[in-house]
Amino acid sequence: VALSFPYPLNYSEDSILVMAVELLAxxxxxxxxxxxxxxxxxxxxxxxxxxxxxxxxxxxGSWSLMPGRLVSVVASAGTAMLLGVAVYTVTxxxxxxxxxxxxxxxxxxxxxxxxxHRVDALALFWxxxxxxxFLRYGASTAGLVAACTLFILALGTKHSQVAAWAxxxxxxxxxxxxxxxxxxxxxxxxx
Length: 191
Fold this sequence. Notes:
Layout: H1 13-24, H2 33-36, H3 48-60, H4 66-91, H5 94-106, H6 108-113, H7 120-137, H8 141-157, H9 163-175, H10 177-190
Helix pairs in contact: 1-3, 3-4, 4-5, 4-7, 7-8, 7-9, 8-10, 9-10
């Protein structure tokens, strides 16, 4: 129902849509004119979600709220699948992993925020993807590079997505302080 509803369901859906329009029109997101000219629209988040919505607009062909909401729904479903993979990695039990992934979708905040035209679902998807890659492949250099890349995507979607990166850095510090420093500096330098 939320996908096709033509009006904002949240206070910020319309302003995020406007910033995606600005990006696709080539006007930029972070310009001095935002403070001196009307309409006064500010881009409070990093650019990756706006870019994802702009791509969604090009695919769907509509500047409705649907492209952004679709990005959020797909990201929420992807996060549930990634959590199922994480649970399976730890337990090796298929049913427990399915329940673990689906349980994520049962939480009220996910049901509410996971369908809105907002950055939260996509940022969480990238952060959880980084965590899962770290969990499964963190012992290898390629796995660490892939996890760090996903953490950078999370930070490029919403600047407050540091928890998974910090947790993986702390876990790596217990195994190898030198490699933990690499995670810390690699993501911090790119962000």
